[in-house]
Design goal:
- The chain has about 300 residues and is of the alpha+beta class.
- The chain has a four-stranded antiparallel beta sheet with strand order 2-3-1-4.
- α2 runs antiparallel to α7, α2 crosses α9 and α7 runs antiparallel to α9.
- It is elongated.
- The protein starts with a helix and ends with a helix.
């Protein structure tokens, strides 16, 4: 009997405030979609960092004859000698953080340059003797770049030391910025959703104040009176969470799997396992958040 009463009251409340309930559902759906998207974006950025940082190298470029003759301050003492090359390689192999060391000759650097810049008019006038020899160093931990830079920058025969990781930092900073913006927008939408939930509960409680007053007079407990209102808010939130799950699944299938994944092959996008792991969290938040908000809103408006 009590369950039937609660269910009937939930139905009455939803019908009386159908417009506001719809607004709550949409607001919750949008805010939770942004939350889920932000969680997936954070995991995507973390995955990309692990993938790309594992491939980046530290490049130690050596002075050549052209650098010395052009008056380059880094090569004021002349082009690198064979003895200096051997010393640099030996010192590199002494570092525990060094995983692999590969020496690239000027001819190999020229071939790579021609492959990468084949459409550039400059490529036609570049000669092999203008290219710098280099040591390509892969580290166990790319974050330890400064150790190599400090040891070899300014050394005789060394023109410069470059960290490929620095080229990726701007990209990851941009992605993190987008993620922070999405979280900020999610927080704003969440506040809007909470305000709508509180307002909806207040309107519903005010419209049924006579019924709740009678129930209070006949001895009904506060929990029994509040339950239909809390369930209304939780149901609206759960429907919003379900809609958010549909949006995330649709975004993964249509935007990532059938659009981005086929056009950006260099990025390993998050899989379905990551999406599925986020969905239960959104459902729990979608049901609990409105219910808790309704509980606090009812403390004042159900007093008789």
């Amino acid at each position: 009997m009590r369950a039937n009463f609660v269910l009937s009251e939930i139905g009455v409340g939803l019908r009386r405030n159908i417009t506001m309930t719809f607004a709550v559902i949409v607001s919750v759906a949008l805010s939770l979609s942004l939350l889920g998207g932000s969680l997936l974006a954070r995991e995507q950025v973390s995955s990309m960092k692990d993938f790309w940082y594992d491939k980046v190298q530290v490049s130690i470029f050596l002075c050549n004859k052209n650098d010395a003759e052009s008056g380059d301050p880094a090569c004021a003492k002349g082009a690198v000698t064979e003895e200096q090359k051997d010393e640099i390689e030996a010192d590199l192999n002494k570092f525990d953080i060094v995983d692999e060391v590969y020496f690239e000759t000027a001819d190999e650097a020229y071939e790579h340059y021609q492959e990468q810049q084949k459409d550039s008019p400059i490529a036609a006038v570049v000669t092999p003797d203008q290219m710098q020899e280099s040591f390509r160093v892969k580290l166990h931990d790319p974050e330890k770049y400064e150790v190599v830079s400090t040891a070899f920058a300014g050394r005789e025969g060394v023109h410069s030391v470059q960290d490929q990781r620095a080229l990726l930092e701007n990209l990851f900073q941009l992605l993190n910025g987008v993620n922070i913006a999405a979280l900020a927008l999610m927080a704003l939408m969440l506040v809007v959703a909470l305000l709508l939930i509180v307002n909806t509960v207040r309107v519903s409680a005010f419209s049924r104040r006579r019924e709740t007053g009678i129930m209070r007079l006949v001895g009904a407990s506060s929990f029994y009176i509040q339950t239909p209102f809390i369930m209304e808010a939780a149901l609206a939130g759960l429907l919003g969470a379900l809609l958010a799950c549909v949006l995330l699944v649709g975004g993964k299938y249509f935007l990532i799997d059938n659009f981005l994944d086929t056009r950006i092959a260099v990025i390993d996008f998050v899989g379905w396992d990551a999406v599925v792991s986020v969905l239960p969290f959104l459902l729990v938040v979608g049901a609990l958040m409105p219910g808790i908000a309704a509980l606090f809103a009812l403390r004042k408006y159900l007093k008789v």
